[in-house]
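Much of our argument rests on the idea that a fold can be written as discrete symbols. This step matters because it turns folding into a mapping between discrete strings. The record that follows shows the chain in one-letter code together with its fold in token form.
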Amino acid sequence: MLQQFSYQDAHGSHPYSVYTPERFPFGSPVPLIVMLHGCAQTTLDFARGTGMNLLAEQYGFVVLYPQQARTANQNLCWNWFLPANQQRGSGEPASIAGIIEQMQQNTELWSIDFNRIYVAGISAGAAMAGILGATYPDVFAAIGVHSGLEYQAANSLGQSMKAMRSGGPAPQEQGSAAYAVMGPRARVVPTIVFHGTEDHVVAPLNGDQVVQQWMQTNDLASNKTYTADYQHPSSMINGQVPGGYAYLAATWNALSGEVVQAYWKIDGMGHAWSGGNPAGSYTDPRGPDATTVLYHFFMDHPMKSTEPGHPVPQVQTWSHRIHRILASKFNRKEEK
């Protein structure tokens, strides 16, 4: 069931939609996945295109869709490039965090697991998801960045256009900046990135930079339990969607064996949600199912699993498991 709500703060009224599964297990804390739309999109459009509500119904979690107001941006973009929106307790990140807090307090409608709150987005929403991971690492257990940009890739509208075309500043510097903004709340934030190699809206270089930025941020936050080399992933799988795109899925692991970062590069895909429903805008069904991959990545990373030195199961084969899930899903479609 998709319902509309509103959150009020010093900056005005902020609309949002929430999908609650029909068979919601009241009294049992469930995960919350925050989904941030891209420019020119509405919450309904984004929900339809990603199919996240279908997974919520299947697995029993809640989905939050904050909606950018046209008064804040006439193109409905999140203003990720404004300095006021790149800090904790300020601007759009604070409003989104406020919505989550409002949901947590409304125990008559939802019971949210505080250790399993996640955020993902596309394009401008992906850039904002990265900002939220840096500014609220105590809220979000893991983040997903689909066709987005690194933290503080720009500080003005003009700079944002340049970054979208040709990338932002050096990722190591931005990684250090993201770590600095975490302050005393600094922790490793597991991150999964998706990007099409033919994206002509947000250049593919930006996907590389997001991965490298979070490598630096997580390295600094890890208490020396995670040091990754972009050129040498812990695992790498070449995949192929039947009748669709080829893709490369790479992961980088902590010393414990836990997958900390994942990067899915979709060969030939443009600026679109990979594996999405064509009924929604900015989707491409020929790519691997980003929604399913996101969900499983998130569920493998509750907040408590990212404490330095926390023992985790051996997950070296995470990519192989995800590929088995995707293959099984495709086979079920074929049978129908």
Observations:
- Residues 318-335 form the longest helix (18 residues).
- The chain has nine helices and twelve strands.
